Amino acid sequence: MDASRTHCTLDHRVFTLFGDVVFRAAASDATPVMAMRLGDQEVTMPLRSLQREFGIDDESEDGRMLGLIAEALQFVTALTPGQELPTEVRTGAASWQPDALHAQIAGAKLQMQLIGWLGGVRNAGAGATADRTVAETDATTLISALDDPAIRPRLQRALGDAASELGVAGKDDVLGMIEALAADLAFVEALRDRLLRRVESMVRKVDGLGKGSRADATHVEILSQVRRLSHIAARQIQARFDDLDAQTGETMAALRHADSQRAFIRSNRDWLYRSQLAWEATLAAWDAASPIAGDTTSALLAITYRFLAPRYMPVTEWLRGVKRAGRQKELGGPSMVW
């Protein structure tokens, strides 16, 4: 990438006319905006509106930079002029790191799946069963399995056969290929913990609220909506991980098509990371939330509903609710939307 595209640099005078400016996503709908201070107030302008107002063409230097800024705001909370763009935009690499444990888990899965491939070669159909078993095995068991004296010889045979199949010099080359792929999959394992597991924990807490207790109708309705939408969210996020596991669940196929697999993994990694950033405040609140209903929990349910509704409510249902809220506002009635 050209050096001028590595940092947030803009030439049009509008970006200095109002003093210090910050680029961020709008809290209401995540639209990329430029925020500035006018007196005691903060004013924001969507980047697309700013381009139209000041005649900044998409293909101009500033237009292309605004496009990069909009992309960057999917990975960082804010940008200021002169700040370095995140690596996801500059090079495609992640701007964050998984834990060492996640790399171990990814490597263990690939090696155990390779043993499953060896079984599939020798016994038709056994490989697929082995791969499903690996996907369903907990991390501690997977990692410790590689130290099992009964497993080590099977892994060595699998590495030898894989070297022949892949046309590389030996077992060490196969291990190197596995380590490279595991380095990318480590990000997926990290997000499995940092996003999926925490969403599942939130769902369990929400499901446990209200059981055996009495509450007013408004609380019951909010709880019902959050429960429904949180289950939809969990299924959608789980589906993304299921797709990743299915596409990378056969180690030999992944090693044969390493470049396309890496692109697939990184695309999903970025989608999941953007999701985690969007979810983080909500999940942090639920991580600390009591499983017992109370005033604090009621407030959290309302906040959670406002987060979930525009993202996971069926579009037609959401639009009906927005229109109903607008009519109620015109009539001076309540504006709560369900």
Q: Which ranges are low-confidence, i.e. pLDDT below 50, for 5 or more consecutive residues?
A: 122-132, 325-338
Measured by DSSP, the beta-strand proportion falls in 5-15%
Distance between the termini: 46 Å
Question: What is Rg?
Answer: 25 Å
Please trace the helix and strand order, writing H or E for each element.
Answer: HEEEHHEHHHHHHHHHHH
Report on this structure.
The chain is built from 14 helices and 4 strands. It has 3 domains: 3-90, no CATH class; 100-174, no CATH class; 195-330, no CATH class. Strands 3-2-1-4 form a 4-stranded antiparallel beta sheet. It is mainly alpha-helical.
Q: What is the fold's blueprint, element by element?
A:
Layout: H1 14-17, E1 21-25, E2 32-38, E3 41-46, H2 47-54, H3 61-72, E4 78-79, H4 87-90, H5 100-122, H6 126-136, H7 139-145, H8 152-166, H9 171-208, H10 217-248, H11 251-256, H12 258-287, H13 295-312, H14 315-330
Antiparallel strand pairs: 1-2, 1-4, 2-3
